[in-house]
From TrEMBL:
<dbReference type="Pfam" id="PF12697">
    <property type="entry name" value="Abhydrolase_6"/>
</dbReference>
<feature type="signal peptide">
    <location>
        <begin position="1"/>
        <end position="21"/>
    </location>
</feature>
<protein>
    <submittedName>
        <fullName>Alpha/beta hydrolase</fullName>
    </submittedName>
</protein>
<dbReference type="InterPro" id="IPR052897">
    <property type="entry name" value="Sec-Metab_Biosynth_Hydrolase"/>
</dbReference>
<keyword id="KW-0378">Hydrolase</keyword>
<keyword id="KW-0732">Signal</keyword>
<dbReference type="GO" id="GO:0016787">
    <property type="term" value="F:hydrolase activity"/>
</dbReference>
<feature type="domain" description="AB hydrolase-1">
    <location>
        <begin position="30"/>
        <end position="241"/>
    </location>
</feature>
<dbReference type="InterPro" id="IPR000073">
    <property type="entry name" value="AB_hydrolase_1"/>
</dbReference>
<keyword id="KW-0614">Plasmid</keyword>
<dbReference type="InterPro" id="IPR029058">
    <property type="entry name" value="AB_hydrolase_fold"/>
</dbReference>
């Protein structure tokens, strides 16, 4: 081999390595989608923990008027991100990220005590397949929206939060349109992108066994945390740790 060619080959290899490293960019953007009967404020402590660790965290305040509207709200926030992003969904938010996760900036999905549907499934059918302990969902008088009975909210949604905090969450809950629970999901993004799942072992709003079975079906990496459905607020350090690890792994 001509020795003059060797430096050229070495330069080409070095350029390829640099290019590959650029493609495997570090993920610093995290977008969080909250669930039904709540808003994004409960994610404050977990978001601040992630912020101190160098992440740019944005919480989507979806309208909960329809699955389509909530996916659009999430995509608008994803459009604003400046690079690779990890998409996180709690509870019903898992339905949203399953479709919004197709966005080109999303590198991975994290399901936090969340529904993780397959194509053609809706929340109502999934919840009915393995009923949860909670029986506190109520309809508004017009029959268009659902909410959790404020008296049962602390036990069913946030049993491991301080009583005053759980009571305020009950009083400030966001009502969700009934059509949100009936809407069917299209092709799931978890089929083509890495996913992680947090199972809240004391969850009364979603059966923990349902969380486990959905995660297994999707091939998600699972972490179990002893917590209520409000695991993101009661165990923010542990939830932030899972999200951080997922961001680091998805960026490789």
């Amino acid at each position: 081999m001509n020795h003059r060619i060797l430096p050229t080959i070495a330069l080409a290899l070095a350029t390829s390595v640099v290019a590959f490293a650029a493609q495997a960019a570090e993920i610093k953007n995290i977008v969080i989608v909250h669930g039904a009967f709540a808003d994004g404020s409960g994610w404050r402590e977990a978001s601040e923990i992630l912020g101190r660790r160098g992440f740019n965290v944005t919480v989507v305040q979806e309208p909960l008027t329809s699955l389509g509207a909530d996916i659009e709200a999430t995509n608008r926030i994803l459009d604003l991100q400046d690079g690779p992003t990890l998409l996180v969904g709690h509870s019903y938010g898992g339905m949203v990220i399953t479709e919004a996760g197709h966005h080109s900036k999303v590198e991975g999905l994290v399901y936090v005590a969340a529904f993780q549907p397959d194509k053609g499934e809706n929340l109502a059918a999934l919840a009915g397949s393995k009923p949860a302990a909670a029986m506190s969902v109520r309809e508004t008088p017009d029959g268009k929206y659902l909410y959790l009975d404020p008296k049962a909210f602390p036990a069913d949604f946030a049993a491991d939060l301080p009583a005053a905090e759980a009571a305020f969450a009950a009083k400030s809950q966001v009502l969700a349109a009934k059509e949100v629970f009936a809407a069917k999901v299209g092709d799931p993004a978890w089929r083509t992108k890495k996913s992680w799942s947090i199972v809240a072992t004391d969850d009364r709003a979603i059966n923990p066994d349902l969380e486990r079975s959905m995660a297994k079906r999707a091939g998600s990496q699972v972490t179990e945390i002893k917590a209520s459905h409000a695991v993101f607020a009661s165990q923010p350090e542990k939830v932030a740790g899972v999200i951080e690890a997922a961001a680091n792994e998805a960026g490789k």
